[in-house]
Amino acid sequence: MRASVLGFVSVGALAAAVHYVVALLAHAWGWQPAGANWLGFLCAFPVSYIGHRRWSFRGTQASHVAAFFKFLAVALLGFFGNQALLWLALTYTPLPFWFVLGVVMVLIAVSTWLLSRFWAFQHD
C-alpha cells in the first residue's frame, strides 16, 4: 500500500501541476474561474488516468474499460467537489483564485485517493 500512496502522490502532483498551471493561465487570459478550472481539469485528466493506471495502481485486476469509467466517475466527483468549494471560497472570502484553487485541490486529493484505491482500481 505504501508504494500505492507514493505512486498516487507522484502522479497526482504531476496532474495537479498541469491542472493548476493551465487553470491559472486561462484565468490570466480572461477566463472566469469556473471555466479556467474546467480547462485545467480536462488537461490534467489524461495525465492522471494514464499515470495511475501504469504506476500507482499497476497491480489492479480491473480491465481498462472498467477502471477508466470508474476513475472518470471518481475524477468528476472530485472535480464537482473542487468546483463547489472553489465557488464558495471565491464568493464568501476575499482570497485570490490562485490560493483558493491550490488549497481546494489539496483537500480533494485525499478523497480521490481513497475512491481510486478501494473502488476504481481495486485489488482482488
Spell out the key features of this protein.
single chain, 124 residues, mainly alpha, 4 helices, 84% helix, 0% strand, elongated
Q: Can you describe what's shown?
A:
The protein is elongated and about 45 Å long. It is built from 4 helices and no strands. Helix 1 packs antiparallel against helix 4 and helix 2 (33-56) packs antiparallel against helix 3 (64-92). The protein has helices at residues 2-28, 33-56, 64-92, 97-120. The chain is 84% helix and 0% strand. By secondary structure, the protein is mainly α. The model has no long low-confidence stretch (mean pLDDT 87). It starts with a helix and ends with a helix.
Q: What is the topological layout?
A:
Layout: H1 2-28, H2 33-56, H3 64-92, H4 97-120
Major sheet characteristics: none
Helical residues, percent = over 70%
Poorly predicted residue ranges: none
First-last Cα distance: 14 Å
Which class do the helix and strand fractions yield? mainly alpha
Number of strand segments: 0
Task: Report the order of strands and helices.
Answer: HHHH
Summarize the structure.
This protein has 124 residues and is mainly α. It has helices spanning 2-28, 33-56, 64-92, 97-120.
